[in-house]
Amino acid sequence: MTSELKQTMDKATDALGGMAGKMTAAMTTEPDGFVENAAMGDMYEIAAAGIALRKGRSDHIRMMARQMIADHTTSKHQLQAALEMNETRGVAPPPRELDTRRQTMIKHLEEAPEDGFDTMYLDQQVLAHEETVTLMRGFEEHGRNPQLRSYAAGTRPVVERHLAMVKQMRAQL
Amino acid sequence: MSFNPLNERGIPLERQLRNWSELNTPPYDPNAVHPYTRCRAIFMNGIEVEAIINSHQFARHTADVGVKQKLALVRRIEQQQQKAVNWLIPGNETTIERTIGYEQVAVDLTSWLARQEPDPYLKRVYEFALLEDFDHLYRYANLMDLMGDRMKAEEITGDLTEILPGRPTIFEHRDPHDDLRRPMTLTAADTQSVMNAITIVAAEQQTMNFYMNVGNVPEDPLARGLYLEIAQIEEQHVSHYESILDPTLGWLTNLVLHEYNECWLYWSCMQTEVDNRIKALWELHLNMEIEHLRIACEMLRDIDGIEAESFLPDAGMPEPMTFETNKEYVRDVLRRSGDFTAWDAQFMPVTQLPPDHRYFEYQKVVNAGGAPSEMVINRHRADFGQEYRFATQGEHPIESLREQGDHDSYPYHQVVTRELEEV
């Protein structure tokens, strides 16, 4: 398979996965599902940003990656704190590993050619942040746990700004 | 022994105004006052200051003239209350003596709140800052000795609070991101958690304001340096504690919670006060606050259509906030978390921070040239041949923080020294 064809197929796989993820996110109102999705999102962002620090071709990509690591570490810590509170008693703990879909996305980043990395990374960032914004907005409005709704309310503006930033950067490539 | 101020009747507002001589409260005798009476005076001054600041902030954010008028009327009384309370503190109690009193409030208030706190995460929030305020008491106590004050710190605190190193102040300086915690929600939190948080924010805010304003009173550069260094930590503590408040509350709901909190605390002071004259002041102010609460509840009902009973407990507050000794509790917290730091909303041993964590860059910048909190101990050792400590329960629970301990083996010291060589 040529490199170009692989990149195209990887991008299509990521896009299909992103669409499915966004649909699931929109319907998430139960605490366990929310925690799983939110935690998975943070884990993916931190892992992807780590690769971007190594492989990113531009200073802007690397700067963005550092911000992603910082901000998604903050949201990870906020979620962990929320899960230590009485308000979330009985909610299942977050997963410790990425699901297959996000593992595949990470694999695509690792395998991306040097001249195609920035595009692939930003394409994934748009998909991932659209999914996370959908998750946070939906749960803030309809979620069935007040503390996790509060967490969503605190995280949503940050990921909305991320989404605006990655869309702008993608448009400028 | 519970108390529900919603079931009580207070003094009508038009009868609450007092004249100057009524407000000019005879102060306590600093040589005879019970340490916890001093604590209650310092503490309730902070509570009244927060009531006033909150009312001013509300007034700046509402266009409703009727609300502004009611806020102004109640606030005028709160200001009178603040004077009557704060004027209990005598003019012949020096600034450093008063500072020792402030830190005793911090240690024994925070300990009580932590012990009563029903939420496990919020308990960790209190325990984290407790060890820092405990250390401030120790640093100021050493300064007090160096300043040649007529008293020793233990004469201020009595036999009630030990004076030992906590989490060393030099290591408390953190990046601002790492003082922000997870807020509770009024909907799901226990009322005790809500009241605890409003209480501690007011207390730490007052301490911060106090050091911000009196830290430049000493002439000695080391004293001035210590006050400004610790004042910066109190800013961290205010950020830390205010971040656990529910940030989504409406102004009127917040006002009701503030007034309810004042009622609970004046009732607590009344229940536990040993000085009969001052007990009568707490009772008078409680009866005023009950009316302030009624007014706030009425506004909440009329304007927002919310009944205060919908979020306040039927049985009221179960226990009075009580100043009492917490020596074993503080030692236990030291043993369990003396080497903890914070990363965003989480607490963990400092050894778990990655080498490139922003904590190390912050430490490198602010502590360049040395920290006054360390210098004050070094100077005390140089001048007196030893540190000032007051221990009643045996040696320090952390070996590396004992006076003759291996200070270099304290985890913070090891980690920071190692990483700052790399930065």
TrEMBL record, chain A:
Record domain DUF4142: where: 32-169
Gene3D superfamilies: 1.20.1260.10
Family matches, as InterPro entries: DUF4142, Ferritin-like
Pfam families according to UniProt: DUF4142
Protein known as: DUF4142 domain-containing protein
Natural source organism: Croceibacterium soli
From TrEMBL, chain B:
Protein name: Ferritin-like domain-containing protein
Organism of this sequence: Croceibacterium soli
Lineage: Bacteria, Pseudomonadati, Pseudomonadota, Alphaproteobacteria, Sphingomonadales
